[in-house]
Inverse folding.
């Protein structure tokens, strides 16, 4: 008792406590460390990434580790590196840890160990936080402190709690006979143990298919049963759905090679073991009024009434692969950590800002935060939550330390460029499509703008408060979207003409493509709530889709950049074209106002003189007038020259035309 | 342009109204089908109808039937009904009985047969309409075959009414139809005369007309009084379409010269409404008669091309130059009236004809483009000169051997290798960057072999990390890295010469410390270190006695800012006093040596902030009477003063130069920038003059431009010689408001050149009826829901493959920007062929 008392007196305090040294916890620790914050990470295990030490059982990660993209752009390459965490240290790229496209889980464990040690993150291992409660205090950042107790009854106090414990509690179902069911956590991974056996797998996620894949070749047959239909990730565009790498069983099922899929509610199930140890499937309904101990012979089986009942054959083993859920058990009732509703009940309830709905100052990071974009984007996976964790960190910096959301101010002439640059390389926008957005805040008179990266659009209405930036003169929101209704478990994603080629049909693009929303003023909370279903944002004042691109390279001058420029010009009501110095010179003498490019470049003595060759091209295109004295020799009127230029232009245009039809994939 | 379109639309509406004001038969069913009894009993007096008789099965008439059906609508507009009469089998009456009759169509007025047409004369809608109207308008349209016939008609008409004479190469053509349709409307006003005789056309004195195309002349016989003279004729310059004829006749009907006594900006005539310019002849009471004659003369010349108005200056108070005698108003909205001083009538005519030519070209182009891109309004045509120029140049390989490519790996090591590394940060997809890259390759060429300078580049699209780290937020950026010093960011013009000069000047420290009196004096004489010897910038020498550290520090700091732009030296030895005395200054002082020491100016330095010092140095380096170029204009614009600028075709002569220099020096506090522009060197100056004066005036021309206040442009009277006295007195008049501006710089804002795709609206229109599930091609639907029943298997298997075949065949070569599967599909098809 004395010990506990003194322990309580010497409560260790940190501004930030992070629970869990998995990928999300370490990622959060990295940002806190970079910002010089007072933080600590608590980890149950003796090393980081304990989940990966056990899972996936068959050791193959399904997150891609692309070695080559043909590009050297490090930001772009992160789009195809689903395993690395964000850091400044280039040694800490996952491709240095594995060359496999689908790497081994052990590589992840090693990677996380290095990440924690090379960056000298402050992780307290072997510390299992078993209880979290609140201590009211008006002085505290959030009106309360978080009091944490570990397995040794040691107490810790924090102002802000970042929960990155993932989802590690296995989902179980209880039905008569569920005691015969083996769990994914412990089931043998040696295929030989399954030789000549008949196996029933409960569940239809990647762990179930991964288990099936492993034993497919040696079993008599495998049946899989679950309530919902199989969701293929290439049809849903959701990386958490069944991945092609695991779907060997679909092949054997559809080719009638004995394996099969069934739909049914596991709650209705019952398993009966016969004397030989075989497991028979029946329905809970049949057992309701019976005494099981009366012996197997007295039990009714579905096949007794329906002699072609699908699962009438007995099984040697039943394996449960039903996934995991968040550990709600350690939180005091006062924290109101509630499970979500419906299909997100395995996650705690959080706001789009990743803050708990029940407790201010408690943020959920990593896999456990996936309720925000469940079955949509990548927020439950490393390649997604590394960005949402950064976003949370930026929110915290602003809230607690008065550090506004990082931003860069550019002259308006860089507007098109800054968007094109980001949509082509930004990984956060790409992975966390329709969740994180780049925001462009226009300055007064639209002569300059401020660029904010990867802000969570769910809290767009609170932007000024959350970022410390002003959005008084209108804003652009840049996100990436799949075509509405393109993705879905029952959708044919290979139909003809699925790809749009023409910029004017860009809004019908199906594959991931940039979309820019323009608002004259920040949408209100109410507008956010009332937004149309399936829309990530409320109705904007104007919208622009950059047409999907087969190479995800949105730098084509005419198909991508030109329509974008026209959109921006029309939102801002200005002319965003570039001009050679000579044109600016002419405008300076003949117009009282100048276009922004001349105003911000030429007039500041940074005009674009351009080489002779380029200016000649511009003249041939009819976009620049050539005034050289030859065309002013009195007898030929100056316009005749003009005409020949136009003639040239027309020739050019005609020669180019047929190509435009070539690229037209969306033929009306 | 929109104005013009409007007028076209309105004229069309007018025609349509005329046409449809005639009562119409059977408005719902265009082609009536009647029995012979019904038809003949229903004929009303005075009403025309075109009938053809047919037995149930007469296959030969089928194509003719289609044509006649489609002409029914047009004919209905002229009150002519088209009737198909179904003959009963046994009928052997006049029209039904004979086999011959069935190959003809009959035109009745009331129950009187006017003409019968063999069906082969009615081969299409044009021929049907032309022939039917021709038959009906027998009195209104005279057909002539000889010149004598034509002259007879002319003689009859002379002094009474006008004549429209049309030549068509053949009847039944579209042109013939257009003439007939026009005659239907105007036949009661003008006498229409038609011929198909090419000889007759030649005889009318049209110089070598092309007899293969139709021709229409308006003959002004009403005004003609002299029986010996043929009536004046005005040819229609455009193709013979109903709209063009209508337009021509409207123009011919307008008064020759309109007398105007109101603000010309408010004047609107038929010409402007029809998209033609209006020429004002500015008149005064004293010269009214002569002006009127001039106006009429010009009007005849311009008939059909422009309108002419006589504007009395005595009545209307015009705020224009007194000398102006002609004004031109174009139909384009927002274009101000141009006031001109022209010497003879030919100039007026040339002016208008040139305008129309340009216009026609534009129109033709627009028409063509309209046809091609009716929907999207050219939005997808590049209108950015830089982007377009760069993409036209993209196949040209740049000579970049002299420029080192830096990567994330090599960036830092390279910087430590050379004494001075110039780095161009750019993005390979960005047009301005690529334009600068072209200049940069030229810079590299200029600096080839210059020791101690390494030119390199970083593509920020490949290496965003370095660019962020080096704080590159804009493309392009040029930085000069020097061992052990802070990098310098280039902030000058993106031109080869400017960048080269910057790099060269940056090689020498700024300011350059001079150790001895000899060095200092040599510096002022233009003896520079070897690195700078080739460079012709004015040189600046700061002279400081050691005590004056404050000014010296400011000078040194200013040197840092101006490094690369200015040649700056510094002398601070003990005998600095002696040096400055030579130029009657005392330290701290600036000595400014222009043109290699031929003149040295002294400027006293006082306590100044660095910024003021920079400002002051920049100001002092400006020329008093500079030649304005594209590159140096911004420096002078920053003075925010009006410009007195002499446009010269080539170098200015000594006399003018001296007078202007005197003027510049003499102006109190240099209230304006006196400068000149060499049109040979800066040909864009012609563009400026054309905007100011519509045409290029005789050169040299001295112009006063209020660049920053109001934008008025004044032209120095060309008859005066450019001397200080003359110009000063002219400026005095300007200031007193006694001169009127030749033009005013446009105040227009820079709006978006074209609209954007309105996706929001497209979504709005598309969404209600499609739950988007249906937005796939309709043909895709069966494939999307494969039949589950095994029985349907075989039947359905055919369908998808047919469909895919159709898909492949139906869209040849449309798939480049789509997806690989489409390409693969084509390959497969090829394979299949080889298998077959």
């Amino acid at each position: 008792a004395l010990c506990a008392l003194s322990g309580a007196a010497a409560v260790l305090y940190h501004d930030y406590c992070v629970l869990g040294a998995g990928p999300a916890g370490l990622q959060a620790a990295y940002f806190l460390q970079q910002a010089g914050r007072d933080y600590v990470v608590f980890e149950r295990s003796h090393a980081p990434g304990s989940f990966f030490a056990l899972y996936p059982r068959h050791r193959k990660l399904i997150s891609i580790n692309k070695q080559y993209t043909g590009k050297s752009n490090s930001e772009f390459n992160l789009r195809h590196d689903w395993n690395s965490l964000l850091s400044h240290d280039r040694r800490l790229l996952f491709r240095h840890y594995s060359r496999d496209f689908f790497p081994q889980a052990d590589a992840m464990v090693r990677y996380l160990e290095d990440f924690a040690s090379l960056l000298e993150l402050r992780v307290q291992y072997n510390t299992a936080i078993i209880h979290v409660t609140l201590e009211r205090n008006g002085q505290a950042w959030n009106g309360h402190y978080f009091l944490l107790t570990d397995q040794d009854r040691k107490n810790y106090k924090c102002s802000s709690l970042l929960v990155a414990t993932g989802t590690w509690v296995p989902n179980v179902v209880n039905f008569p006979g569920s005691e015969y069911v083996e769990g994914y956590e412990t089931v043998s991974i040696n295929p030989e143990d399954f030789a000549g056996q008949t196996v029933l797998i409960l569940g239809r996620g990647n762990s179930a298919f991964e288990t099936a894949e492993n034993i497919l070749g040696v079993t008599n047959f495998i049946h899989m049963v679950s309530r919902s239909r199989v969701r293929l990730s290439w049809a849903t565009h959701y990386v958490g759905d069944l991945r092609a790498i695991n779907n060997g069983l679909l092949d054997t099922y559809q080719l009638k090679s004995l394996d099969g899929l069934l739909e049914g509610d596991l709650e209705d199930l019952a398993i009966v073991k016969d004397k030989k140890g075989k497991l028979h499937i029946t329905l809970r309904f049949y057992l309701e009024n019976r005494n099981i101990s009366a012996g197997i012979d007295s039990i009714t089986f579905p096949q007794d009434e329906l002699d072609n009942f699908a699962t009438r054959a007995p099984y040697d083993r039943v394996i449960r692969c039903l996934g995991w859920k968040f550990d709600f058990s350690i939180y005091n009732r006062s924290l109101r950590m509630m499970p979500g509703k419906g299909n997100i009940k395995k996650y705690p309830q959080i706001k789009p800002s990743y803050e708990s709905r029940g407790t201010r100052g408690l943020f959920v990071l990593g896999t456990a935060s996936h309720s925000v974009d469940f079955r949509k984007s990548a927020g439950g996976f490393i390649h997604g939550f590394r960005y949402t964790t950064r976003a949370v960190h930026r929110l915290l910096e602003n809230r607690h330390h008065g550090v506004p959301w990082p931003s860069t101010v550019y002259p308006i002439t860089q507007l098109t460029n800054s968007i094109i640059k980001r949509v082509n390389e930004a990984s956060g926008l790409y992975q966390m499509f329709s969740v994180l957005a780049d925001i462009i805040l226009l300055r007064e008179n639209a002569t300059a703008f401020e660029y904010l990266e990867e802000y969570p659009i769910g809290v767009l209405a609170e932007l000024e408060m959350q970022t410390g930036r002003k959005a008084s003169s209108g804003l652009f929101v840049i996100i990436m979207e799949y075509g509405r209704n393109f993705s879905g478990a029952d959708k044919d994603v290979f139909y003809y003409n699925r790809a749009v080629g023409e910029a004017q049909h860009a809004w019908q693009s199906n594959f991931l493509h940039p979309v820019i929303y323009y608002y004259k003023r920040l949408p209100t909370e109410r507008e956010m709530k009332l937004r149309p279903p399936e829309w990530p944002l409320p109705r904007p004042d104007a919208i622009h889709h950059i047409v999907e691109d087969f190479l995800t390279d949105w730098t084509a001058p005419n198909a991508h950049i030109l329509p974008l420029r026209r959109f921006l010009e029309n939102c801002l009501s200005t002319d965003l074209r570039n001009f050679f110095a000579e044109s600016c010179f002419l405008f300076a003498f003949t117009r009282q106002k100048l276009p922004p490019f001349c105003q911000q470049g030429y007039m500041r003595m940074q005009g674009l003189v351009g080489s002779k060759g380029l200016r000649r091209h511009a003249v041939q295109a009819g976009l620049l007038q050539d005034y050289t004295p030859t065309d002013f020799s009195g007898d030929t009127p100056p316009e005749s020259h003009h005409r020949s230029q136009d003639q040239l232009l027309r020739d050019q245009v005609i020669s180019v035309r047929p190509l435009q039809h070539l690229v037209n994939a969306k033929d009306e | 342009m929109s104005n013009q379109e409007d007028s076209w639309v309105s004229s069309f509406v007018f025609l349509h109204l005329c046409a449809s004001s005639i009562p119409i038969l059977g408005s719902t069913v265009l082609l009536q089908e009647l029995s012979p009894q019904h038809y003949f009993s229903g004929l009303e007096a005075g009403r025309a109808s075109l009938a053809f008789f047919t037995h149930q099965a007469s296959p030969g008439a089928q194509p003719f039937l289609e044509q006649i059906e489609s002409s029914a609508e047009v004919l209905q507009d002229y009150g002519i009904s088209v009737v198909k009469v179904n003959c009963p089998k046994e009928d052997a009456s006049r029209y039904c009985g004979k086999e011959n009759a069935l190959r003809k169509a009959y035109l009745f007025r009331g129950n009187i047969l006017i003409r019968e047409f063999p069906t082969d004369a009615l081969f299409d809608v044009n021929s049907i309409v032309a022939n039917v109207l021709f038959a009906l308008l027998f009195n209104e349209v005279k057909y002539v075959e000889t010149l004598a016939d034509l002259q007879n008609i002319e003689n009859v008409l002379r002094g009474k009414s006008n004549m429209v004479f049309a030549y068509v190469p053949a009847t039944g053509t579209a042109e013939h139809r257009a003439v007939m349709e026009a005659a239907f409307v105007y036949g009661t006003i003008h006498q229409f005369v038609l011929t198909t005789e090419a000889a007759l056309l030649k005889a009318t004195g049209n110089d070598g007309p092309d007899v293969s195309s139709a021709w229409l002349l308006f003959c002004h016989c009403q005004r003609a009084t002299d029986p010996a003279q043929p009536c004046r004729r005005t040819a229609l310059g455009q193709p013979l379409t109903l709209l063009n004829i209508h337009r021509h006749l409207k123009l011919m009907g307008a008064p020759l010269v309109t007398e105007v006594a109101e603000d010309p900006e408010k004047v609107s005539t038929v010409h402007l409404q029809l998209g033609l310019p209006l020429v004002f002849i500015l008149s005064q009471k004293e010269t009214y008669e002569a002006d009127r004659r001039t106006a009429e003369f010009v009007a005849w010349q311009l008939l059909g091309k422009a309108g002419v108005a006589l504007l009395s200056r005595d009545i209307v108070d015009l705020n224009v130059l007194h000398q102006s005698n002609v004004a031109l108003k174009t139909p384009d909205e927002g274009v101000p009236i141009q006031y001109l001083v022209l010497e003879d009538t030919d100039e007026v005519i040339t002016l208008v004809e040139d305008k129309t030519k340009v216009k026609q070209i534009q129109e033709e182009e627009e028409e063509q483009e309209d046809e091609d891109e009716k929907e999207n309004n050219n939005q997808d045509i590049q209108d950015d000169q830089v982007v377009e120029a760069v993409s036209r140049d993209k196949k040209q390989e740049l000579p970049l051997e002299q420029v080192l490519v830096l990567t994330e790996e090599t960036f830092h090591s390279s910087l430590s290798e050379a004494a001075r590394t110039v780095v161009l940060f750019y993005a390979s997809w960005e047009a301005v960057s690529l334009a600068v890259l072209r200049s940069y390759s030229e810079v590299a060429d200029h600096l080839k072999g210059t020791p101690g300078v390494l030119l390199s580049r970083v593509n920020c699209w490949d290496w965003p990390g370095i660019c962020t780290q080096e704080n590159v937020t804009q493309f392009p950026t040029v930085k000069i890295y020097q061992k052990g010093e802070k990098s310098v960011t280039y902030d000058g013009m993106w031109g080869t010469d400017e960048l080269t000069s910057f790099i060269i000047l940056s090689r020498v420290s700024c300011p350059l410390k001079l150790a001895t009196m000899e060095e200092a004096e040599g510096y002022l004489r233009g003896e520079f270190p070897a690195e700078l010897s080739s460079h012709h910038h004015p040189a600046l020498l700061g002279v400081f006695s050691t005590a004056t550290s404050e000014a010296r520090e400011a000078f040194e700091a200013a040197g840092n800012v101006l490094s690369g732009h200015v040649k700056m030296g510094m002398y601070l030895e003990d005998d600095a006093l002696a040096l400055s005395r030579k130029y009657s200054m005392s330290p701290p002082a600036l000595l400014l040596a222009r043109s290699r020491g031929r003149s040295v100016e002294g400027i006293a330095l006082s306590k100044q902030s660095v910024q003021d010092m920079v400002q002051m140095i920049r100001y002092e380096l400006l020329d008093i009477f500079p030649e304005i170029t594209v590159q140096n204009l911004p420096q002078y614009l920053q003075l925010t003063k009006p410009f007195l600028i002499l446009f010269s075709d080539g170098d200015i002569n000594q006399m003018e130069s001296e007078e202007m220099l005197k003027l510049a020096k003499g102006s109190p506090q240099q209230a304006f920038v006196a400068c000149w522009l060499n049109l040979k060197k800066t040909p864009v100056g012609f563009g400026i003059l054309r905007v100011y004066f519509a045409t290029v005036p005789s050169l040299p021309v001295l112009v006063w431009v209020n660049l920053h206040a109001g934008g008025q442009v004044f032209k120095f009277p060309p008859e005066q010689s450019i001397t200080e006295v003359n110009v000063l007195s002219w400026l005095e008049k300007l200031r007193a408001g006694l001169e009127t501006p030749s033009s005013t710089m446009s105040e227009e804002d820079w709006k978006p050149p074209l609209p954007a795709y309105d996706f929001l609206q497209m979504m709005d229109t598309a969404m209600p009826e499609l739950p988007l599930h249906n937005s796939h091609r309709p043909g895709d639907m069966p494939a999307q829901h494969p039949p589950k029943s095994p029985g349907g298997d075989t039947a359905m298997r055919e369908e998808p493959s047919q469909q895919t075949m159709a898909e492949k065949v139906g869209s040849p070569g449309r798939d480049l920007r789509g997806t690989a599967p489409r390409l693969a599909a084509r390959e497969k098809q090829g394979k299949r062929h080889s298998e077959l």
Remarks:
- Residues 1-8, 631-668 of chain A have pLDDT under 50 and may be disordered.
- Residues 178-320 of chain A form a domain with the FAD/NAD(P)-binding domain fold (CATH 3.50.50.60).
- The radius of gyration of chain A is 31 Å.
